[in-house]
Every structure is written in C-alpha cells, then in structure tokens.
Amino acid sequence: MAKFILPPNSRVKKGKTFKAKKGSGNIRRFLVYRYDPEDGENPRVDTYELDMNSCGSMVLDALIEIKNKIDPTLTFRRSCREGICGSCAMNIGGVNTLACICANEDVKGDVKVYPLPHMPIIKDLVPDMTNFFDQYASIKPWLRTRTPETSDRERLQDKHDQAKINLPS
C-alpha cells in the first residue's frame, strides 16, 4: 500500500458506511479516503455501497455518483474525463492512475480510493499542486523566441520556425 503524508500523530480511522438502497442488485463497495484539515480530526476511510447497474463504468463515474447522490461533501478534482488533463489522478486499488480511465471492473474486490501518496493533501482526494506548478513554471514548457514580446498583437510563427518543430523523430 502507498504511504501518505499525514499530519503529525494522526492515524487513518474507520469512517462512515453508506449502505446501498434496498432492492439494489449489483452492489460494489468503494472505500474512500476522507480528510479535512480544518475540522482537526484524523483522516478516515468512508465506505459507500453503489448499485453498479445505475453507475458508469469508470471509477470517476462512481465518485461522481457518490458526490451527487450520497455524500455531497466528498471532494475531488476532475475535468476532461478522457485521460488527458490528469486532474483526477489518485491512488486506486494501490495504483496511481486516473479515475476517468480506470474501469471499475479492472479493480479486484472493494475499490479503495486514496489521494496521490507523494503529495500533501488539501482535502479528501485533492492534493496540493503548488510544488508541481512551481516546478512546471521553472522549466518553461512553452515555445520561446528570440524576439521581444508584444502585448498588442498575436505572435505569428513563420514557416521556418514551424519546420524546426515538425522535424521527423
């Protein structure tokens, strides 16, 4: 299991259990890490039972179902739902992955959902991305030119510069 950055002297405790509605058929349990530094409590793992017949096929669909229909206090990031942006990165079943491309059926047993283990946690499944964005800005991952910037018009790229980018690899 992954190691998490927790507040000093804290331990993850068992949290609340939210049972599926009576008459639900295809039940799956989701064990979701919950932590709110503002309430002063230790982190906990809440258990949510979902009827998979009324839920989408990805873990992100299940989290949205939980937030929309069971527990609106659950906090997580999401954006593109296509595995492009990385907003929904979390630890699912012991593997760091994207919730939008992780199929529920690919996770064996109960679905254990935790925040990314190598980052401080803001709340629940939301990691603090400050250090990431600081590093990202420091490497300047954009095209730079030798000409000075002008704020009054768009900077057009000439064919010669475009050819440098399109070199065969």
Q: What is the architecture at the second tier of CATH? A: Roll
| Rounded mean pLDDT score | 89
How many helices? Answer: 3
Distance between the termini: 39 Å
Which regions contain 5 or more consecutive residues with pLDDT less than 50? none
Structural class, from helix and strand content?
A: alpha/beta
**Strand content of the residues, in percent?**
15-25%
How many β-strands, per DSSP? 8
Shape: elongated
- Name the CATH homologous superfamily: Beta-grasp domain
- Biggest sheet: strands, sense, closure? 6 strands, mixed
Strand neighbour order, sheet with most strands:
1-3-2-6-4-5
**What would CATH call the class?**
Alpha Beta
CATH topology: Ubiquitin-like (UB roll)
Strand and helix order: EEEHEEEEEHH
Share of helical residues:
10-25%
Count of domains: 1
Return Rg in Å: 21 Å
Structure description:
The protein has one domain (13-139): Beta-grasp domain (Ubiquitin-like (UB roll)). The protein is 17% helix and 23% strand. The protein has three helices and eight strands; from the N terminus they run E-E-E-H-E-E-E-E-E-H-H. Strand 4 (89-92) and strand 5 (95-98) form a beta hairpin. The mean pLDDT is 89. GO terms for molecular function: 2 iron, 2 sulfur cluster binding; 3 iron, 4 sulfur cluster binding; 4 iron, 4 sulfur cluster binding; electron transfer activity; metal ion binding; succinate dehydrogenase (quinone) activity. Belongs to the succinate dehydrogenase/fumarate reductase iron-sulfur protein family. Its EC number is 1.3.5.1. It holds the Pfam family Fer2_3.
